[in-house]
Design a protein that fits this description.
It comes from Halolamina litorea. Belongs to the TRAFAC class translation factor GTPase superfamily. Classic translation factor GTPase family. IF-2 subfamily. Keywords: GTP-binding, Initiation factor, Nucleotide-binding, Protein biosynthesis. The relative contact order is 0.11. The N terminus is likely disordered. By secondary structure, the protein is α/β, with parallel strands linked by helices. It contains twelve helices and 24 strands. The termini are far apart. It binds guanosine-5'-triphosphate and magnesium ion (MG).
């Protein structure tokens, strides 16, 4: 390795896919294998992220990853919970993730959230691989636990292999329909123009070595320049979630993708009413599982370096928005940093019309994805905001002349009790869903029915 690994940050890998297709199981398998390899201590459980150091990747991937061939410090995986859109993971007008794993159940193939994830990967230009998961469920499958996929694939009966092939080619066809040229990963020569499909099982670990190898290869080959950052510089991150925590009040779960954040740092965070300026009181990371039972849930850190997931406690965070930027001020004029945050927030500002629907979404990223989908479907937006559905939203929607516009489209949000009452009183239709496509479809159906 010709570059000092200390100067490169860990690539951020988003794990996405439809509900129940096995995202968390896949990460569990990686964590679990690390434990059985005697590397348990090396894996750190972050807030919303899991860091796997290079040595661990290398020992799990066997011959497929030689640590000496890589300069990167490892991989930081971000799991995206089922109902949570990948669009939360947003930074600098693109994807927060450097690369992604799109998990697809080999039997189920493409599902709505698979399509949604693909849309966002396309829009943000994020390189990705497809993990065709649950190969062990192929009828007649004879598992070879934790082995590279080519070994287990070649060892199957013709019948089992044919059945798997049918499913794999179905997925490859679906990727192609979506505009991505794809093939089984061992046939892919150029990962820049082609998507590799890696057959895996989160249950038996088959193919997991290959998946890790492809991810390391992708990061190393195409991302290296982006990984050369000033790790000591002022931290930059994205809010994954705003959560109330006992003893701390509102806290932020943040993925830090650049620089360092230190206790006492002054920070600027995107909030509902504009940038929030506050000071870091505590940096928290979950303790290992065994410690949680006996001690406090969190360990306090003095300082955290990119890339990592961290919980950040500070005053005045109630209005902070998921998906919003976080910036450490350190050594720069506060005004400049506020302007930076404002600029990033305004990138996401949705184009609105005089007449249109009201849109509410759980995060800035999902709001942006919603706005894009609605624009494509030529559905005008009157107002779009992050947050639960409040009486004010019902009031705004109720002023529209056309029934088509007396509508609220909610993505992954709750309806506040007062708003519920208003909805009953007013002639306003609410569509609330956790799949963007579904929302757009439901709304279009409603419009069509009215025109009949
Ligand atoms: P959400 O977070 O809800 O979106 O789901 P997920 O994508 O994280 O899926 P999860 O890992 O929770 O797995 C869903 C179910 O599929 C669980 O019952 C798993 O045990 C099962 N499962 C996941 N991977 C495999 C696999 O490779 N083989 C088999 N047989 N079952 C699997
Ligand atoms: Mg999950």
């Amino acid at each position: 390795a010709d570059v000092d690994p200390g100067s490169l940050r860990t690539p951020i890998v988003a794990v996405l896919g439809h509900v129940d297709h096995g995202k968390t199981s896949l990460l569990d398998k990686i964590r679990g294998s690390a434990v059985s390899e005697g590397e348990a201590g090396a894996i750190t459980q972050h807030i919303g992220a899991t860091a796997v150091p290079l040595d661990t990747v290398s020992s799990m991937a066997g011959d497929l990853v030689m640590a000496d061939d890589f300069d990167l410090p490892g991989l930081l995986f971000i799991d995206t919970p089922g109902h949570h859109s990948f669009s939360t993971l947003r930074a600098r007008g693109g994807a927060l993730a450097d690369i992604a794993v799109l998990v697809v159940d080999v039997n189920d193939g493409f599902q709505p959230q698979t399509e949604e994830a693909l849309d966002i990967l396309r829009r943000t230009g994020t390189p990705f691989v497809v993990a065709a998961n649950k190969v062990d469920t192929t009828p007649g499958w004879n598992p070879k636990p934790d082995s590279p996929v080519k070994q287990t694939y070649d060892a199957q009966s013709d019948r089992a292999r044919q059945r798997l092939d049918e499913n794999l080619y179905e997925i490859i066809g679906q990727l192609s329909d979506a505009g991505f040229s794809a093939d089984l990963y061992w046939r892919v020569q150029n990962f820049q123009g082609n998507i590799g499909v890696v057959p895996v099982s989160a249950m038996t670990g088959e193919g997991v070595p290959d998946l890790l190898a492809v991810l390391m290869g992708l990061s190393q080959r195409y991302m290296k320049n982006e990984m050369e950052i000033d790790l000591g510089g002022p931290g930059k991150g994205t809010v994954l979630e705003v959560k109330d925590e006992k003893g701390f009040g509102a806290t932020l779960d943040v993925v830090l993708y650049d620089g360092t954040v230190t206790e006492g740092d002054r920070i600027v965070v995107g909030g509902v009413e504009g940038p929030i300026v506050t000071e870091v009181r505590a940096l928290l990371r979950p303790r290992a599982l065994s410690e949680i039972r006996t001690e406090q849930e969190f360990e306090r850190l003095d300082s955290v370096q990119a890339a990592s997931g961290v919980k950040l406690a500070a005053p005045d965070l109630d209005d902070a928005m998921a998906g919003a930027p976080v910036r450490v001020v350190r050594g720069r004029p506060l005004e400049d940093v506020i302007e930076e945050v404002e600029a990033e927030l305004s990138e996401i500002e949705v184009e609105t019309a005089e007449q249109g629907v009201v849109v509410k979404a759980d995060t800035l990223g999902s709001l942006e994805a919603m706005a894009n989908a609605l624009q494509e479907a030529e559905i005008p937006i009157l107002r779009a905001e992050v947050g639960d559905i409040a009486p004010r939203d019902v009031a705004v929607a109720s002023t529209a002349n056309e029934a088509e516009n007396r509508v609220i489209l909610g993505f992954n949000v709750d309806v506040l009790p007062d708003a519920e009452r208003e909805l009953d009183r007013q002639d306003v239709r609410l569509f609330n869903h956790d799949v963007i496509y579904q929302l757009v479809e439901d709304y279009e159906e409603f419009v069509e029915e009215r025109q009949r």
